[in-house]
Design goal:
transmembrane, 5-stranded mixed β-sheet, 863 residues, 39 strands, mainly beta, elongated, membrane, 10 helices, transmembrane helix
Length: 863
């Protein structure tokens, strides 16, 4: 079955509409996602709380959070009066466990099932939490231990685990700790929890040690990477390296040092309290702490010849080895840049590094020994490279801030960080000196990057955008990068605006090719900052963000009260694929307490207590929450209270009419598709923020929405009818001309002996008869005689006679001239679906697509 030009154009338009509006895998995920955006904010609290790390456990649908606080919010109910004053110069580690909303109560805040805060007289903070369910590290006859937790953090003299401190050759000023905590169920089938704090391990292997990250291998062995320095004089917080400041979590911690070494340690778990096989003391809340984590090996690494420092950022157990990432301005084989740095001694910039460590020994992973024989540590033949470094092409400072991976994709991991240069080779750097965020996918075995994505702020204002953390969905198909847009900056190139002060941002890309899915800038009129490891993903692949704010994310503040001037922790979800999130509470323009409070609601504390908090009037009627493609779910205030979040109806931002992808920075020598891929974008709200909003069924807003839907349906029907009529008109215009019209046209020429016959393929055959069949035109012979037609050139063999010109181009037997409705061969090459670039023709050479600047083979059909 063949189609003419009009049919192909119409089919092309229809196919384009379907391709642009559907991508089965992602639409299916949207349909299967029963969640809607939720939000939570702690407080009011007389002290500040800073988030450190958030993780999500799909088996229990719970989040686990830790950080530092000098407030009362995460203290147990019987520990202290929540409104009591707190010491301004101390902070404590806290632990919070909360159930995430299920499909039945989607959109409600997390429900806290446990909270605990360990108070001391010195500044302490926790920055990493790890849930260990490996039975190797649990009692043999365990029945009540639900989960084992390790909290990694910082402490100092007279801190939480002072009894475990040992005499050292180095008088430690600031050191680390691993806290060993068991979560106990009060009854075998109970959901109530208590904790046993066994102690753990102090990390005091030098004058100053900052533990940064930890991981556990399949055998239950614990690995910790730390920053180490011998500079014991405190320094100004403003002079501390930017990447190190990010890792400190708590701004009250005393900073030491300006140049650091990398320290890697392995620990084994050995708890004397488990000797009875049960591991449950008589009084879990009153246990004498002990060293339950013992060291096995310790390896420091630093650049050669004092050429610089090394700032470690993360560690993961992948491919049977430890993959360690960080930043260095020195050079050595361990950091993968020995050749590059040694050849360019003038390059002192900070560069990213990735190195592999043998878990059993802590040695640098090598494949061949010095004598040429295979080394014992080369037990993984799939590994093709031991270490590597990544640097911007203009040799600017590049900092790795963290890493992430998914067990579903064990062959790859991701680096997140900041750069002052150009890490992404596919885009032009807009302004020298501005700071961008970058995300890089790296292969575990080859340590080669698969793709790199880089985003920045306003190029004129030189906005600072820092990538801090990343997370991969459980299926390994999507990656999130989150970070901070500082000091009123904006991602204006991506149609995102500042909310005032520091904001957070979230980027989602396709893990396969790095194609952009959405980018969001989120914040309040205050300062909102992401926690150092403040992004996770839930069972449906939605992003969960944690940070701290001095604004009004999900509760109203009374800024004339001292308890409202400190930082709160916020937790929020952002929907996969769409970027929808719950709008923050809109603060008063004056940032002061309302003169009159219209209603008073309560904010749930982790312990179950409530404290008054001023809110906007709450609507008690049942509300309907739109869930995209999924069915609407109804929740009443009695069934699903939302005390932490504003009760007023969420507003929706308008979607810009122009294509948001056109606003993104174009790559060097090409277009946006070079930077983010060629797949059709199906998320039409990339540059906008469209959020689910609650509305009553039958309300004016609801009726208006249904009216708009019907209006667009009517427009679609009218458009289809118009297209069909246009198609009919176009095909009617192609009807062959009748015989009289052709004869009338030919009568204008000096030709008499012509006969027309109907052609079987359409059109007519024009035949010369009588003398004209032998080349003699009776009408013209009186003027031209036997010398040929007027204008004939015997030298060139050409003529300006239109009939003979046609005859020369399309010679047929017996002097026939063939008229047909079929297009010329040259025109056939430009007939297609109507979707491609006008003027594109079929050739044997590679096609140059002027739209995206990509060379494509001629056999490729671009839809």
């Amino acid at each position: 079955m063949s189609f003419n030009r009009a049919q192909r154009v119409l089919l092309g338009v229809i196919c384009t509409a379907f391709v642009a509006s559907a991508e089965p895998s992602r639409l299916r995920k949207a349909q299967e996602n029963p969640q809607v955006p939720m939000g939570f904010q702690s407080g009011p609290d007389p002290g500040a709380t800073y988030g450190g790390n958030i993780i999500y456990r799909p088996d229990s649908n719970r989040i686990y959070v830790t950080g530092a606080s000098n407030g009362n919010y995460f203290k147990s109910a019987d520990a202290v009066d929540r409104n009591s004053n707190v010491a301004a110069d101390t902070t404590s580690c806290f632990l919070g466990i909360a159930d995430m909303p299920s499909a039945d109560n989607a959109g409600t805040p997390p429900s806290w099932v446990h909270a605990q805060q360990w108070e001391t007289s010195v500044p302490e903070a926790c920055n990493v939490i790890h849930v260990d369910q490996n039975p190797v590290n649990l009692p043999e006859n365990n029945t009540r231990i639900a989960e084992k937790l390790y909290l990694l953090g910082f402490t100092s003299n007279n801190g939480l685990m002072e009894p475990l401190r040992i005499q050292s050759a180095f008088p430690a000023e600031q050191y680390g700790m691993i806290m060993d905590v068991d979560i106990l169920k009060n009854q075998p089938d109970s959901t109530d929890f208590t904790t046993t704090f066994w102690g753990g391990r102090l990390l005091q292997d030098g004058p100053v040690q900052y533990p940064i990250d930890m991981t556990v291998d399949d055998n239950g062995n614990i690995y910790v990477v730390s920053l180490q320095t011998f500079e014991t004089a405190p320094i100004s917080r403003n002079t501390r390296p930017t990447q190190v400041a990010k890792q400190m979590v708590d701004p009250l911690l005393t900073p030491y040092g300006s140049e650091y070494n990398m320290l890697i340690e392995q620990f084994l778990y050995d708890n004397p309290g488990y000797d009875d096989g049960v591991g449950v003391p008589e009084d879990p809340s009153n246990v004498q702490i002990d060293t339950t984590i013992v060291d096995n090996w310790r390896k420091p690494f630093s650049p050669e010849n004092g050429s610089g420092g090394a700032i470690v950022a993360g560690v993961a157990y992948l491919g049977g080895v430890l993959v360690v990432v960080g930043t260095t301005n020195g050079h050595s084989q361990v950091f993968g840049n020995e050749l590059a740095k040694s050849m360019n001694h003038t390059d002192t910039s900070m560069d990213a590094f990735v190195t592999k460590i043998v878990p059993d020994s802590g040695k640098y992973y090598q494949f061949v020994a010095d004598n040429g024989a295979p080394a014992a540590e080369s037990a993984q033949p799939m590994h093709k490279r031991s270490a590597t470094s990544f640097m911007s092409i203009d040799y600017k400072d590049d900092y790795v801030m963290g890493m992430c991976y998914s067990p579903a994709d064990p062959d790859n991991f991701y680096l997140v960080g900041t750069t002052e240069g150009q890490m992404d080779r596919t885009i032009n750097q807009l302004v020298q000196g501005e700071i961008h965020a970058f995300l890089m996918k790296v292969n575990v075995w080859t340590l080669l990057p698969a793709w790199t994505k880089q985003i920045g702020g306003d190029p004129i204002k030189k906005d600072v955008v820092r990538g801090l953390a990343c997370a991969v969905t459980d299926d390994g198909q999507d990656v999130y990068m989150a970070g901070i847009v500082e000091n009123g900056g904006s991602l204006s190139l991506y149609q995102q605006n500042s909310f005032g002060g520091d904001d957070i941002f979230l980027l989602q890309v396709d893990a396969g090719d790095g194609r952009l899915v959405f980018l969001r800038q989120i914040g309040t009129s205050g300062n909102d900052r992401l926690s150092p490891d403040g992004v996770a993903t839930d069972a449906y692949g939605n992003a969960i963000l944690m940070g701290n704010t001095d604004g009004s994310f999900y509760r109203s503040r009374q800024f004339d009260q001292e308890s409202e001037k400190s930082d709160d922790v916020f937790i929020m979800s952002v929907m996969r694929g769409t970027g929808d999130y719950k709008e923050p509470q809109v603060p008063d323009a004056s940032e002061s307490a309302p003169s009159t409070a219209t209603s008073t609601t309560t904010t749930e504390q982790p312990s179950g207590e409530t404290t008054p908090s001023e809110q906007e009037p709450a609507d008690d009627a049942a509300s309907t929450v739109e869930q995209g493609l999924s069915d609407a779910e109804t929740a009443t205030n009695e069934q699903a209270p939302e005390p932490q979040q504003p009760q007023e109806e969420e507003h929706e931002k308008e979607t810009p009419s122009e294509d948001p992808m056109d606003q993104l920075p174009a790559p060097a020598g090409g277009s946006l598709s070079d930077a983010f891929g060629d797949k059709p974008m199906i998320y039409t709200n990339i540059g906008s923020v469209e959020h689910p909003h609650e509305e009553e069924e039958g309300s004016p807003k609801s009726r208006q929405r249904y009216g708009l839907v019907m209006f667009f349906i009517l427009i679609a029907i009218v458009g289809l009818i118009t297209g069909l009529l246009a198609y009919r008109q176009m095909t009617t215009g192609d009807t062959p001309t009748d015989r009289d019209a052709v004869l009338g046209y030919l009568s204008e020429f000096d030709v008499d002996d012509i006969d027309l016959k109907q052609s079987a393929t359409g059109g007519y055959h024009c035949s010369y008869t009588n003398d004209l069949a032998h080349g003699i035109n009776a009408r013209a012979v009186s003027r031209e005689g036997l010398f040929g037609p007027m204008g004939f050139s015997p030298k060139s063999g050409t003529t300006n006679d239109p009939l003979l010109q046609i005859h020369g181009q399309n010679s047929h037997a017996e002097g026939e001239i063939h008229f047909s409705d079929e297009p010329e061969l040259d025109d056939l090459s430009s007939i297609g679906s109507g979707i491609g670039t006008p003027g594109r023709h079929s050739t044997d050479a590679a096609l140059i697509d002027d739209y995206d600047g990509i060379n494509r083979p001629s056999s490729v059909v671009v839809l």
